[in-house]
Protein: DUF1015 domain-containing protein
Amino acid sequence: MVDIRPFKAIRPAENLSAKVAALPYDVINSEEARVMALGNPYSYFHIDRAEIDLPPKLSPYDPAVYQKAATSLADFLKKGWLKKDDAPYFYLYQLTMNGRSQTGLALCASIDDYVAGKIKKHEFTRPEKEVDRINHIKACDANTSPIFLAYRHEDEIQKIMKAWQENHEPTYNFDSYHDVNHKVWVIDDTDKVATLTKLFAAVPALYIADGHHRTESAVKVGLEKRVQKNSNPESDHFLAIVFPENELAIWEYNRVVNVPVTDTFLDQLKSSFTIEKTTKTKPDAPGQIQMYLARQWYTLSAKETIKNTDPVKRLDVSLLQDNVFAPIFGIKDVRVDKRIDFIGGIRGPEELVKLVDSGAWQVAFSLYPTAMTDLLDVADAGKIMPPKSTWFEPKLLSGLFVHDLETK
Structure:
């Protein structure tokens, strides 16, 4: 029931994969990208964060940045650092972190499936972030970074993927950020490509795990090209890597808040939570939240009176928002309120301690990770999770696959 297609990937020369591959553009800022790309002319940051090659005072959203991205992409192709495959293939992408592996299929997904709700979302997007990627896609005439999708696992699909890995040597095999191993296999057997395409046609839905802005942007560019009568099968599809949900891990997405904490704060919490002092920095189960305040950790355990069966309301991020942030701190919209910030779980609870002890933030909350089943349930219900509910690790690197829209 979902339409997937192979594509002619623009990808690194085999000996350059580790030097080209870069973290996603949206998990680092411009200055971090400048540092990471320093001394590495092959880094994909020169395309995905093209402002690093322009004056530092220039806005990363200046039109010159997008033009520079297009120029750099063309330059990488001219120099042979990136090459476009001669035929359309599928690609296996395996990431291994801390002994756990997940293997996805790099492919092109349909913009029509997204419009029809067969590619399901669980987050709202922000217009300014969409515009950034729309401009990037248009300038490069390419989907320049992959969208991370999931599907409810199908044994036959995973069986084919595993057999290919076992019987073929990977094209790329390297370690990168956070000691993650990355391997890529090219599925160049037309029968296997046809079989996988047919099997996915029976998959009822795909789910956006990470990359809502990239998805919305890619779809809008494709639809615009149709209106302009400048579309083709490539621009009707967008670059994605799809993983079976049973191989994925969601990490916690923690919070720090900068608000005055009154002497009655703990008493205010008691209507919704039981409170215990602790040395634990991470909760043991859903319904528990660890709080760091004034150099002391506390366990907040949700009382039955605030628990909910609704797929969104039952999430720990919702319990925190509905019973602490909104009623006590007056933080109604975490997307725009500057008194709150979000800390990815890979940075650990020690980062929360550091931020609060510095005095820049007053209180921190360490959360239990949202379950993958929760994400699927919310998406299936057509609902939206609170912002920053999920943090996926390991991150899919950019630069290993680029999808040419072929409209120029």
Notes: The chain has two domains: 4-249+393-404, 252-369.
